[in-house]
Design a protein that fits this description.
By secondary structure, this protein is α+β, with helices and mostly antiparallel strands. It has a single domain (about 1-80), classed as Glucose Permease (Domain IIA), CATH 2.70.70. About 25% of the residues lie in helices and about 40% in strands. It has one helix at about 80-105; strands spanning about 1-10, 15-20, 25-35, 40-45, 50, 65-70, 75-80. Strands 1, 2, 3, 4, 5, 6 and 7 form a 7-stranded antiparallel beta sheet that branches. A hairpin with a 2-residue loop joins strand 6 and strand 7 (about 75-80). The radius of gyration is 17 Å and the shape is elongated. The N and C termini lie far apart (about 35 Å). It comes from Cylindrospermopsis raciborskii CS-506_A. This is M23 family metallopeptidase. It holds the Pfam family Peptidase_M23. Keywords: Signal.
Length: about 110
């Protein structure tokens, strides 16, 4: 979850949204065709913040996604693979727990 910092045209990213998740982490979503949030708005996981598009410097419809960390030089994109893997593991564990709980009730 986080707070929308920017929801507007952002140069080569086209229509873009940045969300601050804490004081040192931000995500960016770019090349959207439509933005559905506004600056200052709080968003939750799973909320639709915009629609895929091909705005800005884009060769076709897609979503540009970045995880950024705040450094002395400003926001810097980082490899999100560790965070994405942790999120997938958490999702898997919740699905497995719910499946096992429901399976026991059906027996």
């Amino acid at each position: 979850k986080g707070q929308v910092e920017m929801a507007d045209w952002m140069g080569g990213y086209g229509l873009a949204v940045t969300i601050n998740h804490d004081q040192r982490q931000q995500t960016l979503y770019g090349h959207m065709s439509e933005i559905l949030v506004r600056p200052g708005q709080w968003v939750e996981p799973g909320m639709i913040i915009g629609r895929v598009g091909s705005t800005g410097n884009s060769t076709g419809p897609h979503l540009h996604f970045e995880v950024r960390h705040l450094t002395a030089n400003g926001w810097v994109a980082v490899d999100p693979s560790m965070q994405l893997q942790a999120g997938m593991n958490s999702l898997y564990n919740r699905v497995a727990y719910n499946y096992n709980s429901q399976s026991k009730q059906l027996r």
